[in-house]
Amino acid sequence: MARVTEAAAADITVRDGKRGFSLRAFLGRFGALIFLIALVVFFSILKPNSFPTPLNLFNIARQASISGIVAIGMTFVILTGGIDLSVGSLLALAGIVAAAFYKGGTGLLDTGAGDTSGIGVGGAILVACAVGLIGGFIQGLVITKLKIPPFIATLGGLSAFRGLTLLIGNGGPISAFDDSFKVLGQGRIGDLVPIPVIIFLVMALVAHIVLRYTQYGRYVYAVGGNLEAARLSGLNTGLIILSVYMIVGLLTGFGGFLLASRLNSAEAIAGVGLELTVIASVVIGGTSLVGGEGGVIGTVLGSLLVNVLTAGLTQLNVTSYVQQILIGLVIVFAVFFDRFTKARRN
Amino acid sequence: MNGQQPILRMEGISKRFPGVQALNNVHLEVLPGEIHGLLGENGAGKSTLMKILSGVYKRETGRIVLDGQDIEVNNPHHAQTLGITIIHQELNLMPNLTVAENVFIGREPNTATFVQWRALHRQTRELMRRLGMNLSPTALVRNLSVAEQQMVEIARALSVESRVIIMDEPTSALTENEVMHLFSIMRDLRTQGLGIIFISHRMDEVFEICDRITVLRDGEYVGTVNAAQTNRDEIIRMMVGRAVSEFFGHGESHPGEVVLEVHNLSKTGTADDPDKRVVKGASFSIRKGEIVGLAGLVGSGRTDLARCIFGVDRRDSGEIIINGQPVAMKSPRDAIRAGMGMVPEDRKLQALFLAMSVEANASIGSLGDVARFGFINGRLERRMVGAYVNKLNIRLARFDQRALDLSGGNQQKVVISRWLALKPQILIMDEPTRGIDVGAKAEVHALIRQLAQEGVAILMISSELPEVLAMSDRVLVMHEGEIVGQLSGAEARSPGSAERIGAMMTGEHDHAAAHSIHELR
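Above: the input entities. Below: the structure tokens describing the complete assembly.
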């Protein structure tokens, strides 16, 4: 858990006054990775025949990929000290609008009838992304212009986007697409590696590069680290905050398409509770909820960790009720662990 | 009063914060039935001493004796049970509760778990009668005036049977009548044998109400005098009396053409008080290569003026002209584009990204210079920051060391680097040496001087009068939102200048000050 950035390790060695080995620093940097590996080993020992197979592991990764893509966007938001509770609803909205257009409808109450006579796969992806981007843009404006706290603004979004989704889909799903629609969500490279996993990892890499090596990324950390100082240093803080909500919106919209593609159905109730999984992934990955610290690599590990835990427990026939309890404990433990590895700061 | 046993004695109190000795062997003695003034410049250690007395900080040496007994004050609640109450500058009331609830918060008369409202209200009414106030116990505190709220705080202090009441600038937000009423209550409390510690910057009030006065300076005890046997000049001398020559010497400066002009700038409203006129028609100009010192007490409007000029806060009216061009100055971005920089008052809250590296802190304003297509070139960034680390002698373990782990002086130098990297024409520095050690202070002074020689126009705000006097080519003095006086560098460094400025700062305009205002206009 804890931060997995190089800076974390560097800081700690400075505090120690030398570059010697520090267990705390090591755990702080690699904690999430170690815990992830430990979980895989644990489940592999208990289920040696079914758990550690490439197919099973890739299936778990595929499960992680859609919430993981949204979690990448959420990382930007949380780094600025914000939060986005609306991702589950926005994901469903983007999926259903894209599906309606794909089926030849107009997306607004007209969900179309045909199978392919719409806008094509590329068009559907663009529509889903656009819906997400617009949703994020509206919420970003509410937060930066109307000065509504992100928690409230996106809580409003959580409800409003879901309502809109149910309205458009008339409460039900839009299902049964042709193969070209399904290929991104269901396809595998070499019959093994799921395409969503590859998309997830590529997006994570891009996000990592943006956050670590660009001016924009530095500004995101600065806004979350100290908003007042960022403003006094001449940063356009309103625009930076607006942009992170657009980024999470865009990725959520794409996630909405991907989920519809994988399930061969755009469900009006898709993504209910997604915000919890996503925020948990980010937090378990060591990004601080007050902003300014953390990164995308942690989020990738956090997403995998949450999904390995759920999948492993399912395969051990642990009920989903117990799983929820355990996930809750892991979230709290992760934040405690993060504190512990940074304890010598003050 | 001589020969009486003091109600409170603080003896040899010392306290160190990282990088600064806040208090060094300080004494304070309060007699029963005494109003004792505690004076000193901002940063002299008054509030640290009072925080030790009220249990917020732990002292490192010395003893506290209350009614002849050595005491330890563990925390603010403990202080209250010992009979020590502090009434803060920012009142500490719950705005949405009633007067009675505020007075008795946490100590409501009750049977089992239910509050006995009738008893609560009766007791509150009695306290209010004792204070000569006609406040309803059921009035909501948020509907009260500041003066009335203060009475609620005093009632609370009385209700816990305080022996010592500390009043930290209680008059700063009161009208004259309200001050008179407060003083009559203080006199009344005095006859009841309480000890009152009165902190104020208003000299006339101190002389009106206090029996004795203790002066602190730079965390040191200067002395205690009987109010009847001293005068304003002596007190001001005790407060600012450090020899000016201890500071970094004044170099030759050759101010050039005017770069910044401020005309008739006014601002109304603070976070606490939307109607307060914080800056009233301020006008001045600064030349290239000139250091203008802005003196004034905290709350005199000097920081508000700076923040308006830099576009952080919106001004109500007034013009800001840079190099002859009026600038809208709606945000710090406008100011930076116009060639301005500002080292803000509180570096941790307003300037530093504590969790980020020294490098990122220094380069955040000028990343455009070291980035191509939005990608930061790490080598260029390090070269740029490295140059300032050398120039400013910033002591680091590593470039990626976090700002948090630096000393105050080095943190301040990192903040200054950020602005130097933007090559400003005008640099506003608000308390540039607050809370940094003596060595770093001298280095910052040398740097300010050097920048001026390189042609940067500098507006330096400081609560340390000797610093202002030693560094400035010109000194402006603010009092209650107005620029009330101006001194040339030569005047500032002539004998008696500290007393003169001190008098202007506290609103004691002498003829000389009045003359200066006249000249200024």
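Note for the figure: Chain A has a mean pLDDT of 87.
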